[in-house]
Amino acid sequence: MDASTALLTDRYELTMVDAALRSGTAGRASVFEVFARSLPAGRRYGVVAGTGRLLELVSRFRFGDAELAWLAENAVVSSRTLDWLADYRFTGTIRGYHEGELYFPDSPILTVESGFAEGVLLETLVLSVLNYDSAVAGAASRMVSAARGRPLAEMGSRRTGERSAVAAARAAYIVGFGATSNLEAGRSWGVPTMGTAAHAFTMLHDSEEEAFRAQVEALGASTTLLVDTYDVARGVETAVRVAGPGLGAVRLDSGDLLTLVASVRRRLDELGNSGTRITVTNDLDEYAIAALAAAPVDSYGVGTSLVTGSGHPASGMVYKLVSREGPDGSMVPVAKRSASKATHGGRKHPVRLFGADGRAALEAVYVGGSDDASGAAAPAAGGRDLVVPLMVDGEAEQRMLGVAGVQAARRHHTQVLAELPDQAFRLAAGDPAVRTELRQL
């Protein structure tokens, strides 16, 4: 986990630094902001995820001998810039939404304050982490809501990249999934792991009964037996015969689940295994989970849909310069005016306001005000400030890191989800549940 992350970036980040060093603007105080112009189509809220792992990656964003040698061999930047990169470490400040927090269009999710060169180098790394992790977290949170309290497990490692799989398991756990099949997510982030056997284990043996007996002998009668390799009805009967009334669960990974689950439940009860649970794992997404709400399903395992953000594998977040040092040393708001891609200049401070029912009603984003490092003052009485310190003078907030940071994010998400109005949990396409309003100070 000590490897450099400095080349996990785009070439133009370094060429901008090269040119800024030549022009004398590399050290200009700058404020960069991460936000999304819109939510994924039809979504009513987004979830900030990846922050804790991003802070660890920023801490390792250093150019060692190997990285510098490769840059030199490929003539990416000048020798002067290579010398500057050799001493690089981020010494600025990062503030933003707590991991697990909800966001809406134009929410200033993350703010990076530093010299221009220090901050612009982080753009690609910041976006690659937040865009993916938040996409997974947003989809997973909808699945948790659709499950109505029934447990969910993440099991999508074989449907994405090997490092993305770990990130996805982490993001899913933050928003309420109970476990993952991915062992590295367990080791690195403390996500509980689970898993028993695949169809291959059944087919390895001369009969389904032999396979079940081998699994029960190894894992105990409370294990979960996969009963749909050949014939579900026979598989259920064999599972009960082998494991007895102590059989923990049976798993269904194919077929018409709505019909199949009901018949399996009836048969288990007829055989005296009313305590045996049913878990389903067949190409589920939030809509399939919701469709099974009235079925006797006890838990779900979700793979492809989760690790691909349920059709939205990126969150559409961007990283833009919103303020920079002017000739007299004061901070000057800057903004793009491009068609369909205009931005709002100036430092911002978001506050979530609540209605008489205690539910979130407005994301008030105050623009301007104080130019000091703490940002604009929060003027809204009764609102909840959304900005927390994440990295100060290049040092990450320890409470946001590692296993403890994941647990803190999980708790935070549970708390803030309760603030949403009821319509936020509808799966049908609709407008964001909370409106964002920019207010000039």
Task: Estimate the helix proportion, in percent.
Answer: 25-40%
Q: Rg from C-alpha positions?
A: 25 Å
The whole-number mean of residue pLDDT values reads: 95
Outline type = globular
Low-confidence runs of at least 5 consecutive residues: 371-377
The strand order across the widest sheet is 13-12-1-5-3-17-18
Report the β-strand fraction as a percent range.
Answer: 15-25%
Q: Count the helices. How many?
A: 15
How far apart are the first and last residues' alpha carbons, in Å? 44 Å
Main attributes of the structure:
alpha/beta; 441 residues; 6-stranded parallel beta sheet; single chain; globular; 7-stranded antiparallel beta sheet
Structure description:
The structure is a single chain. The protein has 441 residues and is an alpha/beta fold. The protein is built from 15 helices and 19 strands. The chain has helices at 11-23, 51-59, 65-73, 79-86, 116-120, 123-147, 162-174, 183-189, 199-204, 208-219, 232-243, 257-270, 286-291, 304-307, 402-417, and strands spanning 29-36, 46-47, 93-97, 102-103, 110-115, 152-154, 179-180, 224-226, 249-252, 277-280, 299-302, 317-325, 331-333, 348-354, 360-367, 384-385, 387-392, 395-396, 435-440. Strands 13-12-1-5-3-17-18 form a seven-stranded antiparallel β-sheet. The chain has a six-stranded parallel β-sheet with strand order 7-6-11-10-9-8. A hairpin with a 5-residue loop joins strand 14 and strand 15.
SSE layout and pairing:
Layout (H helix, E strand, L loop, with lengths): L10 H13 L5 E8 L9 E2 L3 H9 L5 H9 L5 H8 L6 E5 L4 E2 L6 E6 H5 L2 H25 L4 E3 L7 H13 L4 E2 L2 H7 L9 H6 L3 H12 L4 E3 L5 H12 L5 E4 L4 H14 L6 E4 L5 H6 L7 E4 L1 H4 L9 E9 L5 E3 L14 E7 L5 E8 L16 E2 L1 E6 L2 E2 L5 H16 L17 E6 L1
Parallel strand pairs: 6-7, 6-11, 8-9, 9-10, 10-11, 15-19
Antiparallel strand pairs: 1-5, 1-12, 2-4, 3-5, 3-17, 12-13, 14-15, 14-16, 17-18
